[in-house]
Amino acid sequence: MFWIIFTKVKPFYLLLRYNLQVIMSCNPFPKILPVVLFLIINQNVCAQDYTPIVRNYMKESNVFSPLYNGTLPPQYKSTYDGTYFLESEEYFPGTVVYDGKEYEDLSLNLNAHLDELYVRIPGNHISSVLIKSYVTSFHLGDMAFLHITRFAFPRTPEEGYFRVLFSGEHIRLFKRIKKNYISANPNETRSSHLFETRISYYMVTQDGMFHPVKTKGSLLKVLHDQKKPLKKHISENELKFKSANLDQTLTSCAAQYEKIIK
């Protein structure tokens, strides 16, 4: 009976799970937990007398309810330096194409360690993991991402969320950002772990091949049929193949290649 009640109020159940995780993470374990559970269940489930935060969630999430059917994001228990998010813990204004439907005016963030997309529940600081198989594409601010699968891209080196830097008729440029969770050097930090960023770039040609590109040589090897005009483009625009400039350099070359062969 208890489970049936909870499944009928899944939005509240999501909030309850979050609060339970917070309570259970406390040390020492709160002795008032049974009383808290009794009050929450008695007031919010049985009597349907929701607290303001739950009532607000039920109201705000009505239109976007399919987005909040995922699990809660995992909690990292070890101390660490850096962030597992794409850039920071601050959520981006964004949109997502989810289960064939586009949703706008969302707060989204990407866990680049687990390759998970999080959506923040309106009016709260609670997030839900979007079910990956339902995600087609999304925007984080002005950054566009595509869910690459082997069904759509059989020659991809891996599946996951790729940033789209350029998308033309003959060439595409993708950026893959991953955060590795590694043990930290005790001589350099007090944290036990740190997140290390790994970035890969891929030029995707019309045959569906994913070509890793990082240097001027690797780029010109992929786009060898327009090597001479591209070398001229790189020289005239003083494009640099350093980490800080790669987004701009590779995007500029991809756009120039597309322009030449049209």
Concise summary:
The chain is of the alpha+beta class. The chain contains 7 helices and 11 strands. Strands 1, 2, 3, 4, 5, 6, 7, 8, 9, 10 and 11 form an 11-stranded mixed beta sheet that branches.
Poorly predicted segments: 1-12, 22-51
Number of helices: 7
DSSP summary, beta strand count: 11
| H/E topology pattern | HHHHEEEEEEEEEEEHHH
Strand content: 25-35%
Mean pLDDT, to the nearest integer, reads: 82
Oligomeric nature of the chains: single chain
Separation, N- and C-terminal Cα atoms = 65 Å
Anisotropy-based shape? globular
Rg for CA atoms:
23 Å
Overall number of domains: 3
Helix content: 25-40%
Textual characterization of the structure:
The protein is of the alpha+beta class and 262 residues long. It has three domains: 2-60, no CATH class; 70-212, no CATH class; 213-262. It contains seven helices and eleven strands. Strands 1, 2, 3, 4, 5, 6, 7, 8, 9, 10 and 11 form an eleven-stranded mixed sheet that branches. Strand 2 (92-98) and strand 3 form a beta hairpin. Helix 6 (227-236) crosses helix 7 (246-261). It is globular, with a radius of gyration of 23 Å. Mean pLDDT is 82; it is low at 1-12 and 22-51.
Describe the SSE topology.
Blueprint: H1 2-8, H2 10-24, H3 33-46, H4 52-60, E1 80-81, E2 92-98, E3 101-111, E4 116-120, E5 127-129, E6 135-140, E7 143-148, E8 160-167, E9 171-183, E10 193-205, E11 210-212, H5 216-222, H6 227-236, H7 246-261
Parallel strand pairs: 1-10
Antiparallel strand pairs: 2-3, 2-6, 3-4, 4-5, 6-7, 7-8, 8-9, 9-10, 10-11
Helix pairs in contact: 6-7
